[in-house]
């Protein structure tokens, strides 16, 4: 028994590689042909390199784009290079040309460089030689050169040489039923390398090329299907075939194509022409014996003459007399376009005009007469797939038949207006008119018909989707001249789906103003790792929280040595994603706990361990949280504080109590415990500091250098910068001719320039505001085979399309310069941060540490990001980033954005207390006493949000030692009342809002501002976001005050209690509710009754970047706020000058006992060391300096007095 290979339905051959001998110089003149010649001495036979015979070369009669020079190499030859010269001693030379090859002298194929470049650059004078080594050798007998451009002061003149060697091969021809069977015996030992190579050409688009099986039933089949080559595998005789790979396209073009299957160390390289895929395939042997079937060892050549309609101006006109009673027409075509006119002709006897065209990839026939459609027929579908399709039209005895690919259709007669047709771009062949084949060679020779813009005797169709330039799973579609990438549901965007639409870290989302929630994270940007949905915990730092499937307690059963209990932890990220996130994280932590009760873990001190855990690399470990590797201990063993000192782990003491044991971090694989309870929270990773990786360039001559940037087909570059300079080069990388550069050309313009061989190319973005404002600005540039784009901040970007048939590979070879340039242009002066090239972050800081005149890091971020701190939050500078200090804000959260709310029930109250002035007065001077006697109340700022269905209700009450007070309440109609009493001998003033009933269960925001005798009240309904009322009332001032009882109305409301929600309460710079909820132990607050934080005051603003607008997970680390509130401060320029108001008592839901306090603040009040430490450093980047309305801190020596 052995293996065999079955081959059929192709011409195949083997070949030798490597040759460079001259092929043309020894040929006779009869081997040369041309479209025309200027004279006998200018004939094609004189077109030999470095020869001066005749007129010194070939020149055609007319210098136009339809001329050609053809060489018959007399046998199939491997061509590896070509060289050209102009005509000797003349002004005639060719500056660019096309190179064609063929086996038959017909059906030419154009040689393309880089799959897109068709034209070769020619000569610049008559004598110099320009040589091109072909990237891929050509196997052909005939060679043809088509001049495209020539010396404008002369005419076409050409001498030519080709290099290569004789092509020797064994050829077999298959007719569709014949085959060759190879059988062989396995070699004595396994071979290190197996190689199968062949060349094939086919006129049919489908058929089995090779089928291989071994003695175990494993099978491999290579199948040509619709012009593409598929590799199918089957495992065992009972298995089904599945497709492993697909390569190539348009392989039925009757030209030779190379295929190979090479096995190396278990991997297989599958190659079609110059495209290769690496696969994992079964091993096959390479020793063959041949059994001959019905095979011809010659390769029959089909002679078909196609033509190409390459441009919108292309047309072919043929003589044809069309009668109404008898018509016969057929042709074959192939195209990528969904529409286009195939043919039109006037019918005899004024019967109308016949139109046959493609519409929505279907054949449509219409006969127009007198401006109306009298016949309308459709046939076929999906005819724009690039394959050859046939169209047949026949009219016999009044019956009209239209067939696409031999399928008949019925006739539908319609009426309507004449349609407009798009032009056809594609290939045609085998045109028959009334049963006669049109001789297209005579058309080319201008003997019959007329044409313009046609490529004769070749089909120039190109599959721009094979190989596909669409990345990351983007779907490629194409037309005749271009391709398109559908990036839907890929997570990537751009012309080739190259750039990720998501951020690379939670830190990046945080600094776009996003709060905690679920976000898609693409850790490697445009790299191969897919985006992952991850929970971002935006606290003082941005944490990435990766979930797994075993966060609940899992009870484990006892197991024997053979039946182990396996606890699996499957993370939401796959292995590659998790590995990439961990490798980029600044810090990673994970904690899994094992609760044991009479369940030995390590069996210490002398026994074999019962449990171990497996790390990421698959190795087993027997140490646990807090212990060192290979110690076979738990943390208590190293700390010598285990319950039973005879053991190194509490679980090993056979104790009758539950003891938790922590697993070590970095556990993406499961441990194997014997018995107990296991649970594990998510893995937490601190976002990478790549976002803040920066360097400061303090001289225009300073720069950093890195290895060459490799972005041959796709390149994306992104970074942030800030500068005061008006211009400078951000980065530059050079090649021999190619280059790439991004620069600030002026304060309002950024330029992205490069050259891939088509000449310098520039994309410019101009901004309405200057960019040299010492703020961070973001630049993102991308270049791919279709276009180049540049974006700066959120300004409109610029896009430039790449040439349709130009060079596409960016070839660089020098070092990458950052902040400077090797081309002696002006370097950059300022900071560059978070520089990423194709998703990889360059470590600017590490390189800057060893580079003179460049400093690592770049402080000063509040100037750019301080606006993210909301609701009076203060931006605080950090080395890597910034933080929002919410101390002076009633809000909390990363950006002081989170409402601090609580729901109250009757019996719940919060009192915020100021210090009694008498302690201050004991040591005060007479001057301070006089100031105290002259104190008057100047004004207040009060804001709060509430939600209730109760009316009447007391919301806020502020009282002074002298019986002055402020009360905010809802009256019995649900209207808002603000009651002021500033003189004890006068009645209270009441401001009543005309807003609708506010006791409607909706969230309302109230702002009260009094300055001297002017009072303004603002009421806003959050759900409707409309200002319902805004009024002002003038109050009279008061001098002096007398003590007395609480206002009876206030006391009555106080006794009723309050049921509802209160949120973001602020009195001047005091946030009493926030102090009571978040910092009750360090704030002068008294809480009566139950009080817990609630989200009842949240307005639920959605995030434009989050995957979900809300999330139920709580923050895992620390508190939401980044700073504690100023809990005992008074504004230095507020209305509370001298402290006329003695008590601020915040009452919600009936505070029955109202305590009055009085604060006397001297001008020279002192601050605590903590408050001094919290003061920001003087920095030009800090936009939030000390607020002039902020209040000074009272010392801890001040005491509290009660009335």
UniProtKB/TrEMBL annotation:
**Protein location:** Membrane
Q: List the disulfide bonds.
A: 831-858
What UniProt keywords apply to this chain's record, in alphabetical order? Disulfide bond, EGF-like domain, Membrane, Repeat, Signal, Transmembrane, Transmembrane helix
Q: Which residues form the F5/8 type C domain?
A: 11-165
Residue stretches making up the EGF-like domain:
461-498, 859-897
Q: Which domain of life is it from?
A: Eukaryota
**UniProt membrane topology term:** Single-pass type I membrane protein
Q: Which family does it belong to?
A: Belongs to the neurexin family.
Q: What is this protein called?
A: Contactin associated protein like 3
Q: Where does this protein come from, organism-wise?
A: Astyanax mexicanus
